[in-house]
Amino acid sequence: MTEGGDDERLLEELLAGKHRALARTISKIENRAPGYRDLVSELYAHTGEADVIGITGSPGAGKSTLVDKLAEAYRERGETVGIIAIDPSSPFSGGAVLGDRIRMGSTIGDMDVFVRSMSARGTLGGLSTATADAVKAMDAFGKDKVIIETVGAGQNEIDIVRTADTVAVLVPPGSGDDVQTLKAGILEIGDIFVVNKADRDGADRTVQELRDMVAMDAGDGFGMSGAGHHGADAMQMDDHGHDQGHGQAHDQDPDPHGDEPETWIPPIVETIATHGTGVEEFIEELENHQQYLVASGTRAEMARKRYAEEIRTLLREDVHGLLEDELEDAGGIDDLAEAVRTGETDPYTIADELLEPVEMCLEDLEREG
């Protein structure tokens, strides 16, 4: 059978719910094997039903254990789960070094919990294009929930927003300095904050520090114009300093026409993942956020932005490939660099010359159109 025929059968088996086909599809995507683009293109028509949840946070926050308990709880509700664990890349193979997480033990043997480790490919915490495509494969397969767990390396975690509908940031009990550090990076992208290991000393203090920081998130905010998904409303506090209306959509000060959109105030959930404590409350907040996304129209806007970024990424990759070919035809980058060194030319002239055939092709297409 031809390669195209193999891919067609692979797609049919994936859509029929065969986990072996899902595994093969993700491997093809991750390896960027011949034909993967056509395969991913076919997936789009079958996506859009899964809730995509991002779990991120600093190393040691207990992400894998919480993801395991989260998957177990979803299965008890009769929902199917796909988990993508973004692991640090092996310096030798480029692959994921932790494999299929040994810490996710509660759902071993349950075929309706599909766990796949993927390499961060040199971008700590960053989601490669392959990861986003793997999410589409799980979505098209029919998984009700797709959970992405990232490395947890700071500012680069913002990449997760491009793929996840809801981002949960895990924060272990610690000093105020830890939370201040988070504020400069992944704190800004959280739709839900989870203080895991809440039975440890310092948990109450960490919860209060997070409340204070979310309360200060008034002004520019981080909504759809920034990294995160939530709006800029400050939290409402009662007389005891506790947040009110947490995890709910709230109206901003409405204008006379009632056109102001609702905004999301990130809730703070306390969990002890090793015992499963607080997992149900966490699921409830995840559901609240999904409902908010649909009711406010934010989910549709996020999808448009996500697809726009995918288009830009693919164009960058393709144009880069074309230019690499042009570089080779021009004698290679080293020869061109040497020509600059000896004063024969300069980088700007070289760039213009290499781009000229690409620009001519685009002009020809415009005239034909």
TrEMBL record:
<dbReference type="InterPro" id="IPR005129">
    <property type="entry name" value="GTPase_ArgK"/>
</dbReference>
<comment type="similarity">
    <text>Belongs to the SIMIBI class G3E GTPase family. ArgK/MeaB subfamily.</text>
</comment>
<dbReference type="GO" id="GO:0016301">
    <property type="term" value="F:kinase activity"/>
</dbReference>
<feature type="region of interest" description="Disordered">
    <location>
        <begin position="224"/>
        <end position="264"/>
    </location>
</feature>
<protein>
    <submittedName>
        <fullName>LAO/AO transport system kinase</fullName>
    </submittedName>
</protein>
<dbReference type="InterPro" id="IPR027417">
    <property type="entry name" value="P-loop_NTPase"/>
</dbReference>
<dbReference type="GO" id="GO:0005525">
    <property type="term" value="F:GTP binding"/>
</dbReference>
<keyword id="KW-0547">Nucleotide-binding</keyword>
<keyword id="KW-0143">Chaperone</keyword>
<keyword id="KW-0808">Transferase</keyword>
<dbReference type="Pfam" id="PF03308">
    <property type="entry name" value="MeaB"/>
</dbReference>
<keyword id="KW-0418">Kinase</keyword>
<dbReference type="GO" id="GO:0003924">
    <property type="term" value="F:GTPase activity"/>
</dbReference>
<feature type="compositionally biased region" description="Basic and acidic residues">
    <location>
        <begin position="237"/>
        <end position="260"/>
    </location>
</feature>
<dbReference type="InterPro" id="IPR052040">
    <property type="entry name" value="GTPase/Isobutyryl-CoA_mutase"/>
</dbReference>
<keyword id="KW-0378">Hydrolase</keyword>
<keyword id="KW-0342">GTP-binding</keyword>
